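Subject: for your reference before the review

Hello V.,

The reviewers asked for a structural picture of the protein, and I figured it would be easier to keep everything in one thread rather than splitting it across files. Below is the amino acid sequence we used in the manuscript, unchanged from the supplementary table.
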Amino acid sequence: MYFELLGNVPVLCIRQEPLSFAENRFRKRVFDIVFSLLFLCTLFPIIYVIVGLTIKITSPGPIFFKQKRSGEDGREFWCYKFRSMKVNTQSDTLQATLHDPRKTRFGNFLRKSSIDELPQFINVLMGDMSVVGPRPHMLKHTEQYSQLINKYMVRHFVKPGVTGWAQVTGFRGETHELWQMEGRVQRDIWYIEHWTFMLDLYIIYKTVRNALEGEKEAY
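And here is what came back from the structure prediction:
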């Protein structure tokens, strides 16, 4: 249930999406556990050693960057990434930009290749995230856009994802204008309304393909 504005009148709405059903949630969670475990036990240790050493050599600071994000039902959780920026005090308020001076040289590669997102499979295994779902936003952005975009909080009906439908359909990167975030939210809601297991597999395929080809909006 959620409130939607009809003019200036709040109306209580009831939604029943595919992931409202326990069997679908169970299937998705089992896939998340198996997928994240396989990745974390095979490829991730190698990636961690290579990326971790390079981060330590090229810039002072920790290997991981963690930040509170908004998750399912608006719950806050710590989201993990490989650190791609110099240690700074603006990470919780400023979105990354194309020529962001906070990025390190190696961090620029991490973001372009999306390797910086790989520690989020730890979040998936912990149950805070899913492999596929709406991307988790900074707390400040959730507070801001929930006041500006109708149905914004619908995207919090499911767990946030390492990748999502919006990201593989051209809505990734910095949001200069409100319409860009509105486009993301529309695609997040479409995903929730049309979820199938095959759709998740397709999004994973598109994500890997885009990462290998190089994404212009990945920065």
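For the response letter, the relevant points are probably these. Helices lie at 22-41, 43-58, 105-113, 120-126, 139-148, 165-168, 178-193, 197-213. The chain has one domain: 2-213.

Happy to draft the paragraph if you're swamped.

O.
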